[in-house]
Structure formats: C-alpha cells, structure tokens
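Why predict the complex rather than its parts? Because the way molecules touch one another can change local conformation, and only a joint prediction can capture that. The input here totals 232 residues.
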Amino acid sequence: MAEPWEDEVEGPVKKFMFVNRKAPYGTIYALESLEVVLITAAFDQDVSLVFSDDGVYQIKKGQNTDGIGMKNFSPTYRALEGYDIEKLYVDKESLEERGLTEDDLLVEVEVMSRAQIADLMDEQDVVMSF
Amino acid sequence: MAMLHTVNKSPFERNTLNTCLDMAKSGASVLLIEDGVFGALKNTSASDKVSKAMEGITFYVLGPDLAARGMTEDQVIDGIKVIDYDGFVDLTTEHDNFQAWL
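Output of the joint prediction:
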C-alpha cells in the first residue's frame, strides 16, 4: 500500500523563477540555488532559471575543481533537462561585461536583454534570488 | 617595504579590487584568489584598470581557483603570473607584510 506521502498531490502549478547572480565556489549561493531548483522541479512546478551578473560564471564550460577540494557541481546544470527544466535565460549584458559568449556556456540557454528578462520576471508567481 | 595584497572578491560584485589597486604602492604584489580571479581575465570591463596598475604592481593569480571556474591561462591578462599553492606560500615569505582585502 502506498504511504500517504507517496500519493499524487493535485495542486496548482505555479511559475517559479530562480535568479542566479553569484559566481560558483566563492560562496554557497550557486549550489544552494541548484538544490532548491531540483526540489521545486520534484513538485512538478513551472521552473525557470535566470543567470545574470556573476551568475553567468555558474554555467561556464570547463570547470575543474580538483585543485580546490570542492565538488564540481556544474554537470548538474546539464542534467536539469531530465527534470523538465528547460527554461534557462542568460542576461546578454552580463556576458558581454565579462568577455563571454554563448559558446562559453556548458548548457543550452536563451540569451536575452534585461528588458526581456524583466517581462518574464513580471509573469512569475514566485521569484527566488540567489 | 613590499606588501603582498590578496583579493578574493569578484571585481564585478565588490569594489575590493578597485580600492586595493588605489592603495597598493608601487613595488607591491597583488595575488588574486577565489572569486578574485575574475579580475585577472582579459576582455572584461575590469581588465583595463588591472592592465594600467601593472606598471607598478606585480600581479599573480591562483591557478587552482582559475581552473575551478573553467578559466585557462590563455584567458589571463598577459603579464599576470599564474601560481599554485606552493607559489602562494613563497609569496608570503618573500614579502615584508601582508594585506588580505575582504
């Protein structure tokens, strides 16, 4: 018999947006955001991720943490697709400021202007900032 | 008296590197570590200030922190030396004093 907590819970699907603005490894924000994103996806919510400012460094290709004794969690961004998280948006201005292009990123994203991101942000039920 | 400065914050998020460069004297060394390594990269909005400061200051960047963030040596501004943890220890012994900007 299924335990009560295993029952499918019918509930409203809300639009969640996670705004990632910090570089990975220097602080815990990037990893914590990823944890909450996965939890939200487990509840079948509508999830989108924004990477702006130093947050764009979270999805930079070629991360190798062997030398600093920390877990490289960047491959997890590539696995998000398997959790039906496919709305990844990157702020164009933040990339340019850092001399980065879409080719430097390890996952498929949509590069957007700040005005476009603002419109998407406006449509959300919940916005979480990391 | 030569001072070793370390900067561990991204120049895009804090003004630490800016203040450090304004206060570092000619002959000093600046070592970029942790999120500070983003200040060592070419073609960013912070690159010019660092390049200018290189006239009087010797710059170093910690290689393991660069690699963790997916950056390679060829993305580093020419003239900034990439060092490892042993090199970090050497720098601390070679300088008279030390300022860790937080």
